[in-house]
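Appendix C: a fully annotated inverse folding record. The material below is reproduced so that readers can follow the format used throughout the book. The structure is listed first as tokens, followed by the designed sequence.
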């Protein structure tokens, strides 16, 4: 994907693939990479929509040169989002094209100055403002907190194409295919959800607000800043985001456990058996010492049932379970059934901490709450099985 790719007669993808970064935002693993999508509208006036992470600047400049040749310049840079995975090339773009006019909203301008010291040739747009490029008229929709304060979307009225910023994006570099009809969605779906749950999910009410603002807009193509361009079935990615931002989930369970010497793991195995005996087919088990928390948050977003079990460590939750519960609380996930169990060797702590978590998230708490002193007895394991069965009953209701 070394050359610009035509999306419509005048609109081109000039993005890049990142297969090098290990941790997105310094936290989230990228086992399948990620793309940073930028676009050019080549009309009477030319416009670049967003840029790329700064280390991929050369690739972006080569694609711009390839498309425009020596004779044309960029007239506009439209900034839908200022997070540096998209704004990292702005400073150099502004130097290479000194007359370029930068378009953003009032918040964008603050970020632009704060990150890059840029204040000249900047125009502020408001909700519903139109920029005329010739054949293409661009309309701006401010969508704050999807997922930064300055985020906005740009709608091309000619091709009915929505440049949506991070919204409708996903993890996963583009493996040769740019469009939704060129990619294996079975491969990408979980990575799109992992992106949504970890990056955007906390701001789900703002995603719903954006849907309300965009209602009535005819959208034929969605071009986000990450992942595929949706031209065959944009409704697919719209439905994903709509469902996830309303916290809708599948009948299934994410079961995460922390175990140092296998006793809490035995409890988790008994819970899982109870789930399956109760008729749950989709059970995803995570050992918190093995699974990165982003995959557990993804599965928490995917399934209606969440069961957490932890050993006690220094009279408290096992640290990696604490990290999971902190992030689940932080992401403000709603409408889930919760089961909890814990173990301890000489003084409790884990189950009490999980009870505090349950009180904070206010999910439907399933009985029994099971606790083992040292190795789980046959009676305790039976209680674990009962917890699994009760969770299943709740999800089947
Ligand atoms: Fe892809 Fe919020 O940056």
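Designed amino acids, in order:
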């Amino acid at each position: 994907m070394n050359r610009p790719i035509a999306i419509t007669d005048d609109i081109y993808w000039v993005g890049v693939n990142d297969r090098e970064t290990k941790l997105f935002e310094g936290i989230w693993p990228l086992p399948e990479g990620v793309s940073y999508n930028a676009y050019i509208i080549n009309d009477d006036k030319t416009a670049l929509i967003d840029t790329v992470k700064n280390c991929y600047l050369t690739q972006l400049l080569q694609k711009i040169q390839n498309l425009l040749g020596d004779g044309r310049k960029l007239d506009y840079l439209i900034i839908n989002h200022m997070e540096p995975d998209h704004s990292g090339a702005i400073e150099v773009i502004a130097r290479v094209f000194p007359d370029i006019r930068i378009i953003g909203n009032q918040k964008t301008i603050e970020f632009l100055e704060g990150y890059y010291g840029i204040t000249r040739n900047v125009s502020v747009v408001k909700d519903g403002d139109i920029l005329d490029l010739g054949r293409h008229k661009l309309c701006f929709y401010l969508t704050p907190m999807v997922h930064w304060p300055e985020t906005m979307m740009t709608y091309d009225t000619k091709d009915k194409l929505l440049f949506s910023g991070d919204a409708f994006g996903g993890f996963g570099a583009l493996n040769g295919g740019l469009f939704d009809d060129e990619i294996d969605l079975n491969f990408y779906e979980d990575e799109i959800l992992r992106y949504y749950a970890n990056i955007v999910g906390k701001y789900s009410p703002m995603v719903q607000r954006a849907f309300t603002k965009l209602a009535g807009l005819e959208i034929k193509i969605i071009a986000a800043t990450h992942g595929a361009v949706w031209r065959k079935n944009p409704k697919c990615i719209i439905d994903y985001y709509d469902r996830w931002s309303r916290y809708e989930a599948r009948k299934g369970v994410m079961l995460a456990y922390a175990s140092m010497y296998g006793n809490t793991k035995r409890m988790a195995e008994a819970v899982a058996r109870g789930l399956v005996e109760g008729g749950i087919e989709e059970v995803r088990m995570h050992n918190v010492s093995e699974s990165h928390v982003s995959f557990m948050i993804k599965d928490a977003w995917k399934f209606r049932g969440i069961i957490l079990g932890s050993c006690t460590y220094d009279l408290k939750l096992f640290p990696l379970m604490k990290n999971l519960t902190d992030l689940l609380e932080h992401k403000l996930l709603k409408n889930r059934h919760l089961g909890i169990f814990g173990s301890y060797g000489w003084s409790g702590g884990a189950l009490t901490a999980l009870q505090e978590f349950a009180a904070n998230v206010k999910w439907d708490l399933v009985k029994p709450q099971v606790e083992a002193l040292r190795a789980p007895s046959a009676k305790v394991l039976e209680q674990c099985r009962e917890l699994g069965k009760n969770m299943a009953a709740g999800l089947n209701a």
